[in-house]
Amino acid sequence: MIDFKTKYGPWAIIAGASEGLGAAFAEALAKRHLNLVLIARRSDKLEQLSHKLRDNYPIEIINHSIDLADFEQTKLFFSELSIDIGLLVYNAAYAPIGYFENIPEHDLDQIVNVNIKTPLLLTKLVSAKMIEMGKGGIVLMSSLAGSHGSPKIATYAASKAFNIILAEGLWNELKRHGIDVLASCAGAITTPGYTKAQNAKEAPGTLDAATVAEKTIKALGKGPTTVPGTVNKVARFFMGRLFSRKFAISIMDKNTQKLS
User: Fold this and answer.
1) CB neighbours of 2 closer than 8 A, spacing ≥ 6?
2) Which residues are catalytic?
3) Can you tell me the distance from the alpha carbon of 245 to that of 241, in angstroms, rounded to the nearest whole number?
4) Residue 28 has what DSSP assignment?
């Protein structure tokens, strides 16, 4: 067995790392002694996180404030990195809540840029170097909402479906180069964003960010997709295999009505 750092190091890049699940991934990888590149918009949050991690783990950290909706800015930043990245975790997401008729065109553009174009770009860029290295890993954070139509978050859910299908295809393509690809289809996570959007009690199967990060990392190399949490696994099975699409969508409709 090759140890984690040898397989996925020496550097990991986490997109959307400032807080919540991104910060949980950063700590989980720091515990495994990977050096970190942390990128997100909020430089203050990145600095707080990096100070905490440096105080607790003997690793190097690079912070960079970047708008992940900006394709060219992201590409330029990556082209200037002169390190060997063995693991990409794309956690960033843009998820405006509201019915499609009320979502501005600008928000639709942001969803496509942050949730589809930039993870596609970073996957392309990191995989090219990983092919040369003959090893590496790519984690694309998706969602249970990406398994079927989800009213009130319809475009967000569709973007997450894109990441599931992309990861499944690349899992097969890149494994011959020693690269593991994984889509993590998470349910509700107790992050600042979820807490702010949720107006009722937590959804069944809600997990804390640290648990989702650990379960996702441990699933890397074991298949193209993972669903953190037993309740969420059962829910995906019922929604995807036993219920009709029409009924599954109606269930999602009842759940997403609570979001604002």
Assistant:
1) none
2) 156, 160
3) 9
4) H
